[in-house]
Amino acid sequence: MNSLLRMENISKHYPGVLALDNVSFDLTEGEVHCLVGENGAGKSTLMKILSGAIKKDGGRVIINDKEAEINNPADSQMLGIGLIYQDFKLVQELTAADNIFLGNEISKEFFFLDKKKMNEQAKLTLEQLGEKINTDIPVDKLSIAQKQFVEIAKALRRNVKILAMDEPTAPLTNQETENLFSTIRKLKEKGTGIIYISHRLEEIFQIGDRVTVLRDGKSAGTFNLNDVDSKKLIQLMVGRELAEEFPRHSSERGEEILKLQNVEGGILKNINLELYKGEILGLAGLIGSGRSELVRIIFGADKKENGKLFLNGKELIIRSPRNAIDSGIALLTEDRNRYGLFMELNIRKNITISNLKSLLSGIFIDKKKEADASLNFFNQLKIKAPSVETKVEALSGGNRQKVVLARWLFSDSQVLIFDEPTAGIDIGVKYEIYNLINKLADESAGIIVISSDLPELIGISDRIAVMCDGRITGILDRTEFNQEKILTLATKFLEEK
Q1: Is 90 exceeded by the pLDDT of residue 158?
Q2: C-alpha 185: how far from its chain's center?
Q3: Does residue 247 form part of some domain?
């Protein structure tokens, strides 16, 4: 196979940090070369250098056997390189079609945009990915999974020769993931080289040809995927052996803490559900099943039209997220960057903002109390950053998730709802988050976890409630868990239509 890309001895320094230390990486025609490593290992930095978003401090980039200077994103695009970032680079106010053709618009007479043709071709590209999306509405109105496919379609429209994908399946269902893998196989047949970044190791073995492991800014080795297993990759990534992928939750459930009685709103129909102290309740279902809508009603982000909520046996009136927070209910949202964090603020303020009243001294915030509280969670959750004064926008995905978690730990919530808590997060940090969820349950909190990763949901839950078409189709105990049964319940009403 012909060489498409060679990155030789790439180095990148930041103040006090050596992000990349003589890292080499190569890609050939029709190959899927996977890139794995913990958050902060250097994967994103390497890809940002390839995209022209940042400049390397040392080393060479060679495209099609010729040395290339990539000083900005335009240089990268001219060389046939496309990147799909974990944090979407979409203009929220523009339509899906406008985003797909951004910088590559179709014009008609007198330089007017041919909106009709752009919509038709955008829909065609998305249908090739197995997705039917309204391309004439603002991206802001789309789901996380739909936005992901818009990003992929945007890259495909540019006929790239080198395509880097950073956690592309994080928001996708199993079927959507299969659609994506089918597209990747077609691209391989055309000779496109794919750089595939994922923390889901089962995907690496399913779609990849080779894998390069990064740890602490250095290469820990490149291997044919036929020659390694997941255990070996985990050891190389984290520098230690993890006893088990999902640490077992063993505490007994206590009294009922939250009850939903005939709750309806939006697509939700007649929801009856109980959550107990010390319990981890999984919430399964396909995209659009109503999982996120349900927890948004519990949190007061969406309006309940009918039914009742009870907390510790007393009816709960929630008209806003503020009511929910004051009642001891916390939601760690799926879109942490947009709804879970104040990106321009530092770690300290992001942690303490949910419970400022506990820091008051008279009418003023006690700065020492605030610093001590934030530093306590900063150390407890092992957030990787220079200090609590570091802005959240400078953190990796896993460390941003830890900041969100620290905020709700500081709020001393009784009910914690995790919506896709480990999406886009590395193996080591996932394990830490599972342990923290277990610890919260052990301390008698009630936990609800939404996850599209069925092995994860099966591994950490005490019970799993399955949703389809806005309804609960079944509630399974641990002895009943298996993927086939969950998927059958998750498609129950779809099959009847």
Answers
A1: no
A2: 23
A3: no
Which of the 8 DSSP states describes residue 141?
Answer: G
Residues 6+ apart with CB under 8 A from 197: 34, 35, 36, 43, 47, 164, 165, 166, 167
Pair of tokens at residue 224: 């044919």
> Pairing between strand 280-284 and 463-468?
parallel
Query: What's the rounded Cα separation, in Å, for the pair 446 and 453?
Result: 21
β-bridge partners, 8: 60
35 and 92 fall within a common domain: yes
> What's residue 497's pLDDT?
45
Which residues contact residue 9 at a Cβ distance below 8 angstroms, ignoring those fewer than 6 apart? 22, 23, 24, 58, 59, 60
- % of the chain at pLDDT higher than 70: 93
Q: Do residue 311 and residue 216 come from a single domain?
A: no
- Among candidate residues 203, 238, 273, the one where a domain is terminated: 238
- Mark whether 260 and 349 lie in a shared domain: yes
Please state the φ and ψ torsions of residue 183, each to the nearest 5 degrees: -65, -40
Residues 273 and 220 in one domain: no
Q: What distance in Å separates the CA atoms of residue 68 and residue 489, rounded to the nearest whole number?
A: 52
Angle at 87 between CA 466 and CA 347, to 5 degrees: 95
Same domain, 119 and 265: no
Domain count, the chain: 2
Domain containing 354 equals: 256-496
**Other residues' Cβ atoms within 10 Å of the Cβ of residue 211:** 23
User: Do residues 176 and 263 both lie within one domain?
Assistant: no
φ/ψ of residue 79, rounded to 5: -85, 5
The SS3 assignment for 285 reads coil
**What's the confidence (pLDDT) of residue 38?**
76
Write phi, then psi, for 280 (nearest 5 degrees).
Answer: -110, 110
What tokens appear for 185 in the block? 């196989």
Alpha helices (H) along 52-114: 73-78, 96-100
| Residue 395 located in a structural domain | yes
Find the CATH number of the domain harbouring 350: 3.40.50.300
Q: Cα(128)–Cα(288) distance, rounded to whole angstroms? A: 21
For residue range 32-78, list pLDDT tens digits in order. 999 998 767 888 889 999 999 999 999 999 999 999 999 998 899 89
- The phi, psi pair for 380, rounded to 5°, reads -60, -40
User: Which residue, 210, 238, 266, sits at the end of a domain?
Assistant: 238
